[in-house]
Amino acid sequence: MRKIVLFGFIMLFFVQCNSIKKHNKHLNDLIAEDQLKSDVNFTYRKLQELHPNLYWYISKEDLDYKFDSLKATLTKPMTSFNFYKKLSPVVAAVRQGHLVVYPPIKLLTKEETKVLIKKGTGPFSQFDFDLFNEKLYVTKNKSYDKTIQSGTEVVAVNGIKPMDLIQEYNQFYSSDGYNITYKTNISGKRFSSFFSNENGIKDSLKFDFKFNDSLKTITIKRKKENITAHSKKIEKKLVVKDKSKSKEIRKKKRVNGYYSIEKKYNRNLHFLEKDSSVAIMKIRSFKIGDYKTFYKESFSKIEAHQSKTLIIDLRNNGGGRVSEIADLYSYLADSTFVFLDKSEVVSKSSLFKGAYFYGGTFAVKALKTIFSPIIYSYLLLTVHKNENGKNYYVTQTKPRKVSKNAFKGKIYVLINGGSFSASSIISSNLKGSKRAFFVGEETGGAYNGTVAGFTPRVKLPNTDIQIRIGLMYMAPHFKTTLEGRGIFPDMEIIPTIEDQIKENDPEMNWILDDIKSGI
Predict the structure, then answer these.
(1) Which among 76, 218, 465, 475 is least surrounded, fewest beta carbons within 10 Å?
(2) Do residues 499 and 472 make contact, with C-beta atoms less than 8 angstroms apart?
(3) Which whole number is the average pLDDT over 434-448?
(4) b vs e for 78-112, b when ≥16 Cβ sit within 10 Å of the residue's Cβ?
């Protein structure tokens, strides 16, 4: 039996390696016009089959015209990458942030990835970048060259101006609806990905920097971490010396969630003032960690400390699990609540076709095939057609009581353009129920919901391009009459590059001043 399992793993490894090699081999192949047009038709057909509320922000006539116009421009063979640049703006016209066309780029095998990691941290990864007033700045320098200060403008990288690339790539994806804060917030952070899509992964880059009107050119090479045998020995001794503390840290990482590369916890709770009257909960995402344990323990601590004010920081929280935000909301609501409306899906079979068979190894897909009749029967029972003729899947729609130790004091919520998806849904309900006061800028996610839930990737047959498609229109219980916009703050505060340089947090400072003024 062991030999069979081992053989299966070996075969799977070779299949994956061959698949990557095959993908890379054909990246620069020219694809015939009829195959390109076939992939355009395939894309639109899949959107119609899987994506609910497809014509929310664009009419069917307008989207039909865009797809027809795209096909009319395909008059000669082209590479899959050039085709990606033509197709993605048409798909982005749907104006759904979870709907993404992925560029066909060179993939690395596991062995190639290991070799790259051993070579050290890449030049882009040695900096944090952000966009302010249509200029790209270094907001954090982790490189070996300490002369590069926070607030330094990036004028060019290998001769390429950042804004030229950012403006081009901003056509290839969308926020939810019509807001602009999402792209303003993330495009600077994504610049390195845009550059790598065009030029591949580089071991060194030539940066043209500008600081205080002074221009300088610096080449940044891969940075290899120097972990000596002596430092490893010291680290091992420390672990052995305090096993109980090590166990406590492991538990915290498991419950709070932990990002090892950034060395940051996904969720954190701490208290201000001597009497712990102000509690601050920072949530980076609703994805990793044991959220039920975290919220249960956190709100027990808040209750024990008799905190009067809770600040929830959802800035740059890109979303995650619906079950988590519903659980968190049960500690914030002031009465029995309904968290979501019924989620619209295209058909009874769209969840089955789009989500169930997506992803997984060959063995996993084989198991899915075996159990598919049971799953399909379940979906047939849980997806119902309403009187309006649309199909709905029920999740988080039943009235729910607030948690035993729900917070009853004042709540502030920090938001910005990076607050997207699940963080926008919980914000919609907190805003609509008038349970919280919002500070920051308009969210990147729409107030009235998003098309997400299950988000499988569909591969186009001829160009090997993948498209991520949301399968469920998920709407919060509370709505607004202003379609296509996010949750607006009650107090708008937008940080500047100067705030970044000085590590000043104007939104948090305003809240703390407001709390003090109310005492």
Answers:
(1) 76
(2) no
(3) 98
(4) bbbbebbbebbbbbbbbbbbbbbbebbbeeebeee
